[in-house]
Hints:
By secondary structure, this protein is mainly beta. The chain has 1 helix and 60 strands.
Amino acid sequence: MKTRILCIVVFVIFVFAGVAAAQQFVVAPRMAAGYGQYSADADFNGDGRRDLALWGFQSSGQIAVLTVLLGTGDGNFTQAQQIKLASVSPHAIVAGDWNGDGIPDLALGENFPNGVAIYLGVGDGTFAAGSQLSVNDNILYGLAQGDLNGDGIADLIMSNYEPSVTVLLGQGGGTFGSPTNYDLGNQGQTNDVIVADFNGDGKQDVAVAQPEQPLSGSVAILLGNGDGSLQAAVSYSAGDGGTTHLVSGDFNRDGIPDIATGGVFVLGVLLGNGDGTFQAAQTYAEIHDSGPLEVADVNGDGNPDVLALTMGYAPVGIVTFLGNGDGSFQSGQLFGSSGVSAVSVAVADFNGDGTIDAVTSDFDDSYISFLAGHGDGSFVTWRGFQIVGLEQQDGNRDAYVTSLAVAYLDSPNLDVAFLDYDYSQVIVVRGGKDGTFQGHLAFDTGSGAETIAAADFNGDGYVDLVTDSSSGNGTARFPKHVDYPGSTGEIFVATGDVSGDGKVDVIAVNQNARTVTVYLNDGTGKFNTHVDTSMTNEPLQVATGDFNQDGKLDVVTANAGDLHAATILLGNGDGTFTIGDTFATKNVVGSGVRGVVVADFNQDGNLDFAISSASSVFVFLGHGDGTFGNFVETPGVYLYGIRAGDFNRDRKPDMVGVAGGEQYLLTGKGDGTFTVTDYGTVDGYVEGVGDFNHDGALDVVNAGGSDGMTVLLNTGAKP
Length: 719
């Protein structure tokens, strides 16, 4: 790397937003559809298109809702039916033909009371209430269907919290026999349950996920006798990570069913031996907290792939593990859902193009997201990539990102440098020409750094990195341990030629000392001289620009408190500043400033600045003499990581930022006002912009919510 490191029945058409209108960023379109903590897919109306059934809690009140969505064949859906049930706690759903009429039916798992509600398919995509099955006093976790007694009639198999499996044999006509319970012993609670013939005797067997604590897990195998009964359970370790979800597939293409398990941060693979036993688990990382698993050939190579829904940790989406055909898998690739809390996933060719797509549904709202498949293992949505730092003494390589810088650190593609606060390190992730990222370099920075910036400090044509230092020995710290005396507590750094000598200087702010410090560059990348400018306010961040058009670099600080949210410091050309005006946003104390950015938002030739607070974005329009008018407010967005750029290439500055874990684009109108668009859930609260895939349009990268980064590629759409 050429980088020197310095420190109810209705028929309504629901059209996904991304299908109906042009988007500025590549994200999975989402639509309001139903409450889908659990989902099942089948062709409910016999038209040859894949449909969805969603089963979950209505967000307002303890009402269970069953929603049936019929696929239109182009990636959109028609709501065929919605049924609401009071005093029911949804916990699982499975599709099967309970009455033998060739039309898919549904079984809805319920808790409090514990049981299963049968709904029989009519054939037009709607369902009629069938029998209500009372099971036991246990808590139902998983629900599967299969033919355990070989009579051609579908049976129901349930996994229960107190470790047991319950079997209800189908009798035809949509009715079932009395439940039979199989105790799993003292092996911890159960979760998911699946059915397959694991020993090749033509009789269906049962596998149950047992999470166990704290981070281990196992799979219990109950071999079927062919008469509806099951043998005693035999458990197999699934490796560390806790086993919550299961799926079966022939991953090594030997004709024997294998099992994939999902847990916390780990995908486990147990290859079947053909006699009902399994080999030791192989594990694959990069899964976060796994939700439901699916098997499909998403890249068309004939090998089964595994898709895992991420849950519990941002970012949410699906992780695809491409199968090699020998039982091994490639590293997971994350493709984002636009929902806040995706909890279920279905995979099929929903848009009729011959490739596998995915639909995720959310827990916290009534939305589903549609991830159209490219046919190469990728999906039309934002991408997620892992940030891997130096291995710590505890074996941890995660990162808590507080800042990032985008630069050509390893030409010819843009790279991203992340500042990891917890472990005091800089992590560089190399960019590819297509907007993907791979490969990591990590450097120790010493303690206390919070922000990072990039520039060529020594004029050698290579980009360098600089970080601040908020604790320790009172120095501004540059990685590779080049330290320069400063003041303890510096929390933000920026770069620019403050002294007017053509050399890039470093600007740092110190909230506790209430100072702006300029580290003067001697041209060789050394900063032996620094100049402090004292303030009456507490600066948090800083941005640069020539606000009075005198050819000298000025700065604007974002301060603690809305009554004095921003201060102008006019540059004297020697590294010192003259304190200018201080600006308030609203008469609200304590809501806090989130960031500051500079651009000519009203296109009058004078630089303006924008402040993001906890309630709105405020734009102060410059007069060109270092003074500014009253703010123009864009309410309802409280953006972290605010950045400016022309994302739709209309020559009017726009802004991007993250609020509440969701990506926002503020499209500039050229007068200081903006149109706000929410692009769904992403990872983190610090952002950077750049053309990562060389198409001439600005893309967005963000991080900070976990040990991952998300990349939103620009669609190139223009007004």
